[in-house]
């Protein structure tokens, strides 16, 4: 039984006990003096029950406070999408700690997709010009994660890639700055010339 379930059950039982205790004497006709004396006596008993029982119970339950604890300061990574490269001012982060990606673009819409070593998509966001989208993610498993584009932004969309190294806590090179630029391949350059020729016709 979880703490939340136990506390809910305890509250329901306490409420039912109070309702029964109040409603049962009401069935019997008594004079005001007797009722008043019994009420004060019951309040005194309840007070002495609440102090040694309910207060420690409440303090114990607050150990498992349902409210989220303040998160640790997020590791900030500024991400800028361009045709056709990602600019990351930091490519190494610590595992198990929040990472806040501040994502934007300088030319067109791009889709920021972060993949783990098995190829599974673990986080994503949109990179849009003149806007900064904030993506917070916690990398639980150390390793090398790939950053790919989920948006068809042009002929070299498949070359729009980068890497993020997730290291064990305390092993991060926090001063690391990296820019990954992809130069168009010869085949890509030929395709561009062909497209331009078709457009001119």
Overview of this protein structure:
- This protein folds into 2 domains: 3-64, no CATH class; 75-184, Immunoglobulin-like (Sandwich), CATH 2.60.40.420.
- The longest helix is centred in the N-terminal third of the chain and has 30 residues, at 32-61.
- The chain is of the alpha+beta class and 201 residues long.
- The chain contains 3 helices and 10 strands; from the N terminus they run H-H-E-E-E-E-E-E-E-E-E-E-H.
- It is rod-shaped.
- Residues 175-201 have low confidence and may be disordered.
- The protein has helices at residues 3-26, 32-61, 186-200, and strands at 75-82, 85-88, 92-94, 98-105, 110-115, 121-127, 133-138, 143-149, 161-167, 178-181.
Instruction: Determine the structural class based on helices, strands and strand pairing.
Output: alpha+beta
Q: Which outline best applies?
A: rod-shaped
Rounded average pLDDT = 76
The CATH C-level class name of the largest domain: Mainly Beta
């Amino acid at each position: 039984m979880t703490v939340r379930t136990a506390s809910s059950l305890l509250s329901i039982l306490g409420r039912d006990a109070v309702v029964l205790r109040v409603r049962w004497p009401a069935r019997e006709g008594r004079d005001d003096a007797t009722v008043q004396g019994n009420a004060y006596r019951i309040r005194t008993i309840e007070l002495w029950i609440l102090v040694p029982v309910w207060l420690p119970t409440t303090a114990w339950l607050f150990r498992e406070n349902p409210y989220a604890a303040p998160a640790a300061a997020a590791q900030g990574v500024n991400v800028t999408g361009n045709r056709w490269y990602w600019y990351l001012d930091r490519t190494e982060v610590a595992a198990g700690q929040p990472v806040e990606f501040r994502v934007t673009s300088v030319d067109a819409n791009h889709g920021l997709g972060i993949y783990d070593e098995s190829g599974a998509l673990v986080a994503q966001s949109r990179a849009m010009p003149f806007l900064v989208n904030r993506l917070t993610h916690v990398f639980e498993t150390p390793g090398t994660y790939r950053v790919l584009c989920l948006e068809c932004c042009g002929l070299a969309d498949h070359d729009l890639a980068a890497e993020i190294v997730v290291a064990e806590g305390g092993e991060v090179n926090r001063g690391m700055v990296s820019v990954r630029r992809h130069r168009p391949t010869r085949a890509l350059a030929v395709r561009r010339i062909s497209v331009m020729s078709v457009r001119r016709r």
